[in-house]
Amino acid sequence: TLKITVQDVTTIRSAQLALLNSESKFRSLFESSIDGIILTQAGGSVRSANPAICEMLGYSQEEIVQKKRWDIFDFNSAQENQRQQDGSFKGELFLLHKDGHRIPCEVSSVLFTDSQGRSYHSTIVRDITKQKAAEEELKRRENILSATNQKLAEAVNDLKKIMDYSMDVICSFN
Q1: Does the CA dihedral 122-92-125-102 come out positive or negative?
Q2: For residue 127, which phi and psi values (nearest 5 degrees)?
Q3: Of 71, 75, 77, 24, which is closest to residue 46 (Cα–Cα)?
Q4: pTM
């Protein structure tokens, strides 16, 4: 006897296509983002990094996945405590370039667990070097303006004294 089993795989195939589509969208977002994206395991190992973070830090993809979180992020103890307590961090901190210089960045990081129960930190990084330079330039110009205003106020005060003295001299002739 011959036994034949027929199973409708339409639902399974649709789910597989949806999964492939979702993975493709995620991969495109990850690869083409102008912000750096880095995925680290709970122990600190870099699991993956997009091209933007590799370029920002001067590492190749192969080099960066050999690094640990603390090789890349210059956390102070308060920032590290917040990240460990909350499982997330949002703020400014420095990243460490391959050549050793520090890069000011805006960082958003969150701890999540995947479908197999593994914990990861997903971190999005934006280089704010230009913004920091612009802030410093603005501060420098404000200081110059403040000093100029102070000198101008002093000059006006001196001119007022001269005018008062001149008026006293003129009035003394009468």
Answers
A1: negative
A2: -70, 125
A3: 71
A4: 0.71
